Automatic annotation (TrEMBL):
GO terms for cellular component: cytoplasm. This is Uncharacterized protein. One of its GO terms (biological process) is regulation of amyloid precursor protein biosynthetic process. InterPro entries: NECAB1/2/3. The lineage of its organism: Eukaryota, Metazoa, Spiralia, Lophotrochozoa, Mollusca.
Amino acid sequence: MFGFMEKMNEKMSSAMHGTAQTYKDAERKEKFMMRFFLKEIRNQVLALQFQFDAALETLDAQAREERQDIHPVVAEDLKKSPASTIVPGHIARRAKRQVSSMSSGLEENGSLLNVQIDRLASLLDRVERKASQKNILKDRFLFTCPIWGRGP
């Protein structure tokens, strides 16, 4: 699994580098699409992170069941203890993430999702309006163009 993650990281880095190079010369529509897809990719990667966190929690719970001397890191203990006593690494980073996620709460995560959905809906509405305006202008042009044999 680690090898897969390294390969994915390399491919994502090279794709991001290529996107950065082509973004400068891209048209407005292409730039919009690049930003849109990058945000969607970010959301997919975050979804993977949540799955990894859930798997890690399950493995930690199983380890605690197997050995009684394993105790979970408590966020309040991290806040109280001086920085020199905290061992850097995965456990400390995870505990800090847990502290920040506890302060944000699940309701906020749900509301963030709703905000993203609303924003996407408004963007789609804007795109549809622009497309319909272009069709209206195209129809007016065809209707008033003397070449097509139509006109007022």
